[in-house]
Design goal:
CATH class: Mainly Beta
CATH topology: outer membrane lipoprotein receptor (LolB), chain A
Helix content: 10-25%
Largest sheet: 13 strands, mixed
Number of helices: 4
Structural class: mainly beta
C-alpha cells in the first residue's frame, strides 16, 4: 500500500495495548480462545490501523460534511466520560516506553463471512515518548488457516524516529524514508486521528470525537468500554467509529475494534505481553533505528512542503 493511502492512525494503535490473553474482544460480544500463544489522509501521511488489502475502497461512502452527532449525553453520562478521560490522561502522562505483541482479525463482510476473519495477523508494536514508534506484522494467516509468506503485499513494517517515517516495501524491496515537515516533528502522535494514549489531553479528545461509555460484552467484569465517533471528515475517512476497553483498576488498554467507513467491515485488535516503561530496554538495542536489508533500494522522499519550494530540476536557473 502506498503511503498516500495511509494516515496517522497506526501510531495510535499503541494506545490500544492489552495486558491479558484470557479474553479476546470479538464482534459478537464473545471472547473465543486464541489459537496459540499467551483513517481523508493529510500530508504527510503516517501508517494506519487499516491493514494492507483492507483499506476502504470504492465501496466506502463519500462523506464530505462533518459527521452529525450520533448520540446525546445527559449531564450524568457526560460526567462519567469526563472522569474516565481524566484518569486515562493521568495514566498516559506516565508512559515513557511501550512494548507489546498484537493479534489482529480482519473481517470482510462484503465479500466474506461476517463470523470468519479474512486474515489473522501477528506482530509487534514499540513506542518511546514523544513520537518514536515501530510497527511490524510478522505472520499472516488466511481463511484456509495456512500461513501466508510475509514477503507479500500484506507485509507491513514501519519505523518512526520523530523526524521521518521509514516504510519497508517487501514487494519492491525498497526502504522508503518519508521525511516529516518541521511542523509535524515531535507531535505527530498527538495530531493523529486516534490519539487515545500518547500526547493528547482529555479536552483534546473531546474536541475531536463524540465519546460515550457503553456496556462491555457479556460476562466481562472490571472493564470500561468507550465508543468514539469522529467529529471531523479527515478522521471519519479512516473509520466510522471505534470501541475500546480499559481496565478499571489500572486504566490499562484491553481491546480495540475499528468499524470501517462502510459500516460493514471491521478490524479487531488483541494486544498481549505488554510492557510499559521497561527498565531493561536500554540493553535490548534501538528498535527505532532503520536498517536497509541487503539488496534493497533506499528511497528518500522530502516533505510535500519542501518539495513545493524546490525549483524544477530541468537545467533552468
Amino acid at each position: 500500500m502506498h503511503l498516500r493511502f495511509i494516515s496517522y492512525t497506526l501510531i495510535a494503535a499503541i494506545s490500544m495495548a492489552i495486558s491479558a490473553l484470557a479474553q479476546q474482544y470479538q464482534p459478537n460480544g464473545g471472547y473465543p480462545p486464541p489459537s496459540g500463544g499467551n483513517i481523508q489522509p493529510v500530508q504527510p501521511q503516517l501508517p494506519t490501523l487499516v491493514p494492507r488489502g483492507a483499506q476502504p475502497g470504492v465501496q466506502q461512502p463519500v462523506r464530505r460534511l462533518p459527521p452529525a452527532p450520533p448520540f446525546t449525553l445527559t449531564s450524568q453520562q457526560q460526567a462519567q466520560v469526563d472522569q474516565v478521560l481524566r484518569l486515562w490522561e493521568q495514566r498516559n502522562s506516565k508512559v515513557k516506553t511501550f512494548d507489546t505483541g498484537f493479534r489482529r482479525w480482519v473481517y470482510d463482510t462484503v465479500f466474506g463471512r461476517p463470523d470468519q476473519p479474512k486474515f489473522v495477523d501477528l506482530g509487534v508494536i514499540k513506542y518511546a515518548a514523544p513520537d518514536r514508534g515501530m510497527f511490524r506484522v510478522d505472520t499472516t494467516t488466511g481463511k484456509d488457516g495456512r500461513e501466508v509468506p510475509i514477503e507479500d503485499a500484506r507485509a507491513e513494517h514501519w519505523i518512526s524516529d520523530g523526524k521521518s517515517i521509514v516504510e519497508y516495501n517487501h514487494v519492491k524491496k525498497q526502504m522508503i524514508v518519508h521525511k516529516l515537515p518541521p511542523e509535524l516533528q515531535g507531535k505527530a502522535i498527538a495530531d493523529g486521528p486516534l490519539p487515545f494514549l500518547f500526547g493528547s489531553s482529555a479536552q483534546q479528545l473531546k474536541q475531536r470525537y463524540f465519546i460515550r461509555v457503553i456496556a462491555p460484552p457479556p460476562n466481562v467484569q472490571g472493564q470500561i468500554c468507550l465508543e468514539a465517533y469522529p467529529r471531523f471528515q479527515k478522521d471519519a475517512a479512516n473509520f466510522h467509529h471505534a470501541q475500546f476497553m480499559i481496565t478499571i483498576d489500572k486504566m490499562e488498554p484491553f481491546a480495540l475494534k475499528l468499524i470501517q467507513p462502510n459500516t460493514k467491515d471491521f478490524i479487531v485488535y488483541q494486544f498481549y505481553e505488554t510492557v510499559i516503561n521497561d527498565p531493561m530496554r536500554m540493553f535490548r538495542g534501538d528498535p527505532f533505528r532503520a536498517n536497509k536489508p541487503m539488496g534493497w533500494q533506499s528511497i528518500v522522499e522530502e516533505p510535500a512542503s519542501t518539495q513545493a519550494r524546490r525549483p524544477p530540476n530541468d537545467g533552468r536557473r
